[in-house]
Amino acid sequence: MNENTAFKLINLHFSCRRLPRPFRIYIMEHFDLIIVGGGPIGLACALEAKKQHINYCILEKGCLVNSLYNYPYNMTFFSTSERLEIGGIPFVSISVKPTRSEALEYYRRATVSHSLNIRLQEEVISIRPLNDLYEVRSPKNTYTARYIIIATGFYGIPVLMNVPGEDSPKVTHYYKEPHLYAMQKVVVVGANNSAVDAALETFRKGADVTMVIREGEIGKRVKYWVKPDIENRIAEGSIKAYFNSTLKEIHEHSVDISTPEGVLNIPNDYVIAMTGYKPDFDFLHNAGIRLSDDALLKPSINVETNETNQQNIYLAGVVCGGMDTHSWFIENSREHAVLILRDITQKEARRNT
Ligand SMILES: Cc1cc2nc3c(=O)[nH]c(=O)nc-3n(C[C@H](O)[C@H](O)[C@H](O)COP(=O)(O)OP(=O)(O)OC[C@H]3O[C@@H](n4cnc5c(N)ncnc54)[C@H](O)[C@@H]3O)c2cc1C
Questions:
Q1: Is 13 exposed, middle or buried (0-12, 13-18, 19+ CB in 10 A)?
Q2: From the CA of 317, how far away is ligand 1's center (Å)?
Q3: Are residue 142 and residue 44 in the same domain, yes or no?
Q4: Cα 239 to the chain's mean position, in Å?
Q5: Do the domain assignments include residue 290?
Q6: Per residue in 142-165, pLDDT tens?
Q7: Is residue 71 classed as helix, strand or coil in its secondary structure?
Q8: Which residue, judged by its Cα, is nearest atom 9 of ligand 1?
């Protein structure tokens, strides 16, 4: 099949949603490249594909830059704005470090002004080999593509504590903003940036905050301008902290905390579990991508091209790190776009000679 001419394949056996099932017409669209995920790095890949005249489409399961949209409303990036730029498009922010709202605005403007080909609210549910192409399925459509970039990030799946009561409505793994917690008894689980930001923000809006921290200290990666603030609040006792401790059980009006001194039961209204997130490993595994057999579950990639063990399937962005979700971020993974598209254009040049 020549995909350049046969980019719309009509298969009378399958589906066109308005007809009864036996008469449905199934339209399989073809792109040279399908990018799974419309986060900053998926968009960077699209900008590079456009520059290299590669016919591409981004499929995004949620809204544009869905992960950033779901970040805490008042968050400020730790990176300066020029380090979050993609495709060389200037990112102008009021302060040196941009806010979430400014980043949403920037990535939206970059997408619209460059007319990026993106389909929102369309989750990719499978990627399977089909002759020398791949078949990509979503609930809305089926596509073929020669090349796939998976840039699905890590923010969709929280790392669970696996304790009784974790599914209660008073527990969140996605902290948004502090007002809800004013004058309430709040437990914040974790000791990294997200936990520290949530603890300080809710404390400053009048919450009675207790931190439950598995390790013996506040995380080493916590922003250097925030770390003294949380350590001083803990030292003066205005935020309580249990170190070397874990949450054991969540009850309707209290929680049990396992501490080195034994199990404590303290009154509680809300739990903010900032225990991290993880990539969708089932999705990667089902696409045939090998994962390391240690706890990091690192996907197998050629570091020079970001191609996986599956020929013509590439990974980009934070998903490359497996459970090591802090090794890649926007600043250092936006360059994946250039690496990958260089490899694809070289392959295309060889194919066309
Ligand atoms: C609070 C916070 C602050 C941060 N601050 C910074 C910072 O200052 N600087 C920095 O460089 N990094 C920062 N990061 C990290 C950075 O945001 C991530 O590394 C970045 O979002 C990675 O971009 P990405 O495109 O790889 O993944 P994501 O932004 O997570 O994008 C992945 C996209 O894929 C979509 N998706 C997932 N599965 C599917 C599917 N099956 N089908 C279709 N779409 C799918 C998701 O909906 C999502 O939109 C921060 C992270 C957090 C949580």
A1: exposed
A2: 8
A3: yes
A4: 30
A5: yes
A6: 999 999 999 999 999 999 999 999
A7: coil
A8: 79
User: Which atom of ligand 1 is closest in space to residue 78's alpha carbon?
Assistant: 8
176 and 261 share a domain? yes
In a domain, 298, yes or no: yes
Phi, psi of 311 (to 5 degrees): -55, 135
Taking every pair of C-alpha atoms in the chain, what is the biggest distance, in angstroms? 72
- DSSP reduced 3-state for 260: coil
- Residue 5 counted as domain residue: no
pTM of the predicted model as reported, rounded to 2 decimal places = 0.92
CB 11 within 8 A of CB 19: no
Nearest alpha carbon, ligand 1 atom 15? 329
- What's the mean pLDDT when you consider all of the chain? 94
pLDDT above 70 coverage of the chain, percent: 92
Burial class (CB in 10 A: 0-12, 13-18, 19+), 174: middle
Residues 6+ apart with CB under 8 A from 53: none
Q: CB under 8 Å to 247, separation ≥6 — which residues?
A: 161, 163, 187, 189, 212, 255, 256, 257, 258, 271, 273
Pocket of ligand 1 (CB under 6 A): 36-42, 59-62, 65-67, 71, 75, 77-79, 123-124, 151-153, 155-156, 194, 280, 283, 317-318, 329-331
Over residues 241-275, the pLDDT tens digits come to 999 999 999 999 999 999 999 999 999 999 999 99
Supply the range of the domain harboring residue 252.
160-273
Contact present, 76 and 97 (Cβ < 8 Å):
yes
Ligand 1 atom with minimal separation from the 333 CA: 26
- Among 45, 174, 330, 332, residue to substitute to test ligand 1 (most atoms within 8 Å of Cβ): 330
Distance (angstroms) between ligand 1 centre and the Cα of 70 equals 10
Cα 42 to averaged position of ligand 1 atoms, centre (Å): 9
CA distance 187 to 33: 45
Give the mean model confidence (pLDDT) for residues 344-352: 96
What pLDDT score does 256 carry?
A: 98
